[in-house]
Design brief:
523 residues, two-stranded antiparallel sheet, 33 strands, Znf_C2H2_type, zinc ion binding
């Protein structure tokens, strides 16, 4: 945009609206009918490449691309200092990979990429970290690694100002704002946030395993899996920490441990911001956002996101290594869980919200609470796209799609998606209504019903119709009202087919068919 600012404003219009006498790329103005409204939208299109822009400034900035003497890619608009770099770049779009590895037959777009790849087979790692001793095949990988020690994060998100160690991590993070998974598997349709995950995924379909163990020749789909496997052949714990002399089975574990001395948790979740000591811990954590639970208890069948959680859970069945609260006798799987519980008895709430000043028992409750202020909803349903602030709400929601109803009423056998719905239902058998209105004494089975009822006394109507402005005491009443404007009638009579905007209207109508005599409604 710097070059654009120096253009004479009177000449700018001529460049946009007329054909230039010089043989330069020019943009002309044209008017098209907007698809989203009935207004005409002015667009500026480039004569050379037909790209369109909504403002003159964008059109001028784009025009400068065609003026430069540097090699320029018309597909993605990237510049290159040398023709040789441009030739290599074009292969990204054409798919051409003329350089082949003689060992594993993998192909590459440039000779430098092939040489770099060759070090995987030779095991050569020329670039070593002076802080923790880990070695790398490429200098760029070492630079990134050192940033994790120093805490340097030079790549900042334009939306939320969060910073990242690499541009790749920033790109991956931006999908948390857009909810985009741009990389698609053509075999099964699976979608991925970054291309590296897709590459590894495709290998599982094709059976390609380009990473080979030098000791036993076993092959793996990723370098990470190979490194884990290599520890099997290594003598016990050959990697020593220079600070505390602790030993480890593989160098990756030592690197994770070194972060403890450096005081760092360099791996951040791009969905909720939580930090972890290693990429493997981060991967396990991300399963919470996906809702996938691959590990099952063989005693009761309950599912969990991680194997460690299954092990902890099974202690409840076996009674093994449980810890007990001295005050109330309640048992816990871990000492950390017990310490959190003890705060209930002591009244300690050590985690304050910096925005509103509310205090919480543990940090996870504070993290969830903060989303009320930020509006963040990191748990995304991959089926319908709906998002949630809490993982527990997300888990319950997914059962709508799966049809799972794990909570069963012992009296009538009816099943429910969540425990709170079962508890409310059980009150229909017991008649219990524990939520009382202090003004009129009316009792309710649900606290949410009491909250809505109180608005009758206060006159509060916080839900407003966007179409006509009419206010309502509850969101459900507003939802029914909206159907008057949209014409939607989702409840229909199975006998005569008549449709209604509310279930209560349908129930009243059904009496016409079921009653002995006709029902006369007064007008």
């Amino acid at each position: 945009m710097g070059d654009v600012d120096h253009l004479d404003s009177s000449n700018d219009v001529d460049l946009i609206t007329q054909t230039s006498k010089r043989e330069e790329p020019v943009c002309e103005e044209r008017v098209t009918e907007g698809r989203s409204s009935n207004r005409n939208v002015t667009e500026y299109s480039c004569d050379l490449c037909s790209r369109t822009f909504l403002s003159e400034e964008e059109a001028f900035a784009h025009k400068e691309i065609h003026k430069t003497d540097k090699p320029f890619c018309e597909i993605c608009e990237k510049f290159f200092l040398r023709d040789s770099h441009f030739v290599i770049h074009k292969r990204i779009h054409t798919g051409e990979k003329p350089f082949h590895c003689e060992i594993c037959k993998k192909s590459f777009i440039s000779n430098s990429d092939l040489k770099r790849h060759g070090r995987i087979h030779t095991g050569e790692k020329r670039f070593r970290c002076e802080i923790c001793g880990e070695a790398f095949i490429e200098r760029s990988k070492l630079v990134i690694h050192i940033r994790r020690h120093t805490g340097e994060k030079p790549f900042e998100c334009d939306v939320c100002s969060k910073s990242f160690v690499t541009n790749g991590e920033l790109t991956k993070h931006t999908t948390s704002h857009t909810r985009e998974k741009p990389f698609h598997c053509k075999i099964c349709g699976g979608t991925f946030i970054d291309s590296s995950k897709l590459v590894i995924h495709i290998r599982r379909h094709t059976g390609e395993k380009p990473f080979h163990c030098d000791v036993c020749s076993k092959s793996f789909v990723s370098n990470g899996e190979l490194r884990k496997h290599e520890a099997v052949h290594v003598p016990p714990k050959p990697f020593n920490c220079k600070v505390c002399e602790k030993t480890f089975v593989c160098d990756a574990d030592l690197v994770i441990h070194a972060c403890e001395h450096a005081g760092g948790k360099p791996y951040d979740c791009d969905l909720c911001g939580k930090s972890f000591k290693s990429d493997s811990y981060l991967t396990k954590h991300r399963l919470r956002h996906s809702g996938k639970k691959r590990f099952h208890c063989d005693i009761c069948g309950k599912s969990f996101a991680s194997k460690n959680n299954v092990v902890k859970h099974k202690r409840r069945h076996t009674g093994e290594n449980l810890v007990y609260c001295e005050t109330c006798g309640k048992s816990f799987v871990t000492k950390d869980d017990l310490n959190k519980h003890k705060r209930i008895h002591t009244g300690e709430n050590p985690f304050p919200c910096e925005i509103c000043g509310t205090y919480f028992l543990d940090f996870s409750h504070l993290t969830t609470h903060k989303r009320i202020h930020t509006g963040e909803r990191p748990f995304l349903c991959d089926i319908c796209g709906k998002s949630f602030a809490q993982n527990s709400y997300f888990i319950v929601h997914r059962r709508i799609h799966t049809g799972e109803k794990p909570y069963r009423c012992e009296i009538c056998g009816k099943c429910f998606v969540c425990k709170s719905d079962l508890s409310t239902h059980e009150r229909t058998h017991t008649g219990l209504k524990p939520f009382d209105c202090k003004i009129c004494g009316k009792a309710f089975a649900r606290n949410s019903n009491l909250i809505v009822h109180r608005r009758i006394h206060s006159g509060d109507k916080p839900f407003h119709c966007e179409a006509c402005g009419k206010p309502f005491t509850s969101n459900s009443d507003l939802t029914i009202h909206r159907r008057i404007h949209t014409g939607e009638k989702p409840f229909h009579c199975n006998i005569c087919g008549k449709k209604f905007i509310a279930h209560s209207h349908l129930k009243r109508h059904v009496q016409v068919h079921t009653s002995e005599g006709p029902i006369i409604y007064e007008t």
